[in-house]
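G.,

No rush on this.
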Amino acid sequence: MIIPSVATLLYLEMPAWKHSLQSISKPHLFWFSCFHNMALSVFSGYVFYRTTEIIFFQDGFEFSHRFFFQRPEIKTLMWWVYMSKYYEFIDTALLYASGKTPIFLQKFHHVGAVIVWHLANIHECDFIFFVSWLNCGVHTIMYAYYLCSLFTRRIPRYIKQTITTMQICQLSAGPLILPAGYYYTETRENYKILMVFTAYVMYLLYLFGEFMLNTYFRPMCLS
């Protein structure tokens, strides 16, 4: 846990760098933001394509201990997804550079993702394969939306709301399906990691639900 712990401490220290981040010129910030969002959308799209191919055309929804992690190509793919969770810290840096303050939901999401993906990869927990499949599917669309929003402000509001709904749906799938699927097949140690993931996602669902309510529904009631 040394690497995710150090990364988390550095991430939480990011507010101390905001003045340096805000000194980045607007053209440089714009073009780096374009590259960042395009890179994450393309990467997520590739992972979603490969995992979809494996699930629907090769192995199916197999729930057993190290069924996927015993294959080097899948193990490597999951390692890259884990590494991408560190790179996603840049989402927060870009907000500070733009003069904005990230909400607690984003900070908790990023820190928790690094910890969960670290534990799952170190202990080779197959549940992270399915989590990565759903997560990358949503991220493909989400980062493409962020990229488009850099070029125009005329994107309909319902698209952002739809993406938030997709995030809530993919988060809900994990706690509903994975604990039951791995209850009789996973080792006790790995099942404990699955429970840590479940607790993390349940709190995320609460935060996303609160965000959805405050952003999309309460303003409608007050208007």
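When you get to it, here's the other one too:
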Amino acid sequence: MTWHLVSLDAATPQPWRNAGGVTRELLTWPGPANWRVRISVADVQAAGAFSRFEDVDRWFAVLEGDGVVLHLDGDVHRLAVSDAPFHFHGDAAVHCALVGGPTRDLNLMAPPGRGRMERVHARLGVHAAAGSLLAVYAHGKPAHVAFHGKTFDVPPRHLAWTVLAADASGTITGSEALWMEAVP
């Protein structure tokens, strides 16, 4: 099993059409033109509507800032750095308001019913099936990964990812990390 490491600082910022922020794509798998799984970090600088993505589930987690308020289907969801990732359908109409100013957020997009994102609170044990795409994002502090006999550290502001050839189990240890799994 080979883990790939992607630096947030090396990812090119892509401005949004509505001028409300920029996105840095960390992973588009299997490729940029035909992705089934996308992991990105967004710098939200102004309130506005989220882009819609048909046939995709989305997860959204605040990494920095005072948080956001998401308006979705008549409901209001306030999200801060310590909150669990928020899951919603990509074709939903979502409006984002900033709580106290700009935020930095992590996004996962995957086929409906085939992904998940979790915050790591100290230690997280996981088991994944063959064919799964696994990823760990460490933001302000490093994360330690012990998976299928391999151990390594993910530096701050980096994404580590792999696609499993066989079922595997492991643990992720950290205080500012997120775990993602998708079955493309």
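The first strand starts at residue 4 and ends at 7. The radius of gyration is 16 Å.

Enjoy the weekend,
O.
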